[in-house]
Amino acid sequence: MGIDQGKVIVTGGAGFIGSHTVVELALAGYTPVIIDDFSNAERSVLDGLASILGREVPCHAVDCNDGERLNELFAAEGPIRGVIHFAAFKSVGESVHSPLKYYRNNVGSLTTLLEVMKAHDVWDLVFSSSCTVYGQPDTLPVTEDTPMKEAESPYGRTKQICEELIGDVVKAEHPVRAAVLRYFNPIGAHPSSEIGELPIGTPDNLIPFITQTAAGIRDELIVFGDSYATADGSCIRDYIHVVDLAKAHVKALDWLARKEKRPAQEIFNIGTGSGASVLEVIEAFERASQQRLAYRIGPRREGDIEQIYANADKAEQVLNWKADCGLEEAMRDAWNWQVALDRKSKPVD
Ligand code: WQD
Fold first, then answer.
1. Which atom from ligand 1 is nearest to the alpha carbon of 278?
2. Among this protein's residues, is 155 annotated catalytic?
3. What integer best gives the mean pLDDT of the chain?
4. Crossing angle of helices 206-214/327-345, nearest 10°?
5. CA distance 78 to 199
6. What is the pLDDT of residue 263?
7. DSSP strand E in 46-170: where?
């Protein structure tokens, strides 16, 4: 057993990225404690974590907007080394129809969390942000200095506001040390197929829609447009394996602990540094899964930007982190996870 790196609160730790980060924290010698209200995650994730780690991960079913309960938890779980804050709603489409729900939860929970952290002298925070804050950038790849544009949705605006909220807390001289990670497109699943993406209802995102189509759950994938100004006409994104993304959070926590200067806020692009088009993703999936994918070209999706991918040099230089997994490996893990899910859901004959 390595040295104990201390206890880390992982809000939203039963979610897609949160659960994969819990694994990497434990493997790195941290003691993760999950806080999740299970509004967008299933309790079965805890079984998957237990089977990967060989032990139960402590979990409290609490809403991060509940300051009183959060206070009690921080008192009971202390001393706490740091917090990774994933808990937020993340559907671009839903945020357009229910903006107040997104402001209340995404901005409200961060505010409550920071108040409770201050009350308990917990100052290291890794915050889950998104490349959505950039909008459609004028130049590519995007660096951390690429100016934010008008957000394309209330979801994106809540991420912009949260980043600025942390900045104001830092300016107010609270000794907080914050690493803000701007994710590009998280995809794939844990290679064990014990945890992965669990979209509730019809998936918004590309990869779960692809794997559900290949599994026969969906009839066909609609490619939202092929007349963009890209090589094959379909949109380009920076797809990053969720395990690589999870490892970036551990590196960020390590880095915060080494950073003497307080208060501090640093922003990092967490992407692979290269873009892939929707049609290239389909090809990579077919190669990785040996499955033909039923798809057709349809109309553009409102709010989609044409292309975005990261310059992730700062994370490499400062955090000593770089994405290792390629697109095909992520497709293989996503497909294996879908097969495992379907096997679990089919009654044993
Ligand atoms: C990717 C590409 C679609 C579905 C969003 C959020 C971002 C993050 C990830 C939270 C696009 C195309 C998709 C389909 C398709 N979420 N597509 N057919 O929109 O890049 O990012 O999810 O952090 O913040 O903005 O991801 O997977 O929805 O779409 O053609 O059925 O796949 O047009 O080009 P997106 P996505």
1. 32
2. yes
3. 95
4. 60
5. 33
6. 79
7. 59-60, 82-85, 124-130
Q: Which amino acid does the sequence have at 238? A: D
SS3 242: helix
For residue 152, the model assigns a pLDDT of 83
Which residue reads 């009839």 in tokens? 219
The H or E element containing residue 123 is none
* Helix (H/G/I), strand (E/B), else coil: 222: strand
Domains contained in the chain, CATH given: 6-340 (3.40.50.720)
For residue 61, give both structure tokens: 């079913």
**Pocket perturbation via mutation, ligand 1, pick of 155, 224, 232, 293 by most ligand atoms within 8 A of CB:** 224
Helix (H) or strand (E) holding 343: helix 327-345
List C-alpha distances in Å: 155 to 94, 250, 322: 8, 25, 27
Q: Is there a contact between 236 and 306 (Cβ–Cβ < 8 Å)?
A: yes
DSSP state of 43: T
Please indicate whether residue 221, judged by its CB atom, sits closer than 6 Å to ligand 1.
Answer: yes
CA distances from 223 to 160, 263, 278, 293 (A): 29, 45, 7, 12
Residue of 30, 102, 155, 309 marked active site: 155
Q: Average pLDDT for residues 306-311, to the nearest whole number?
A: 97
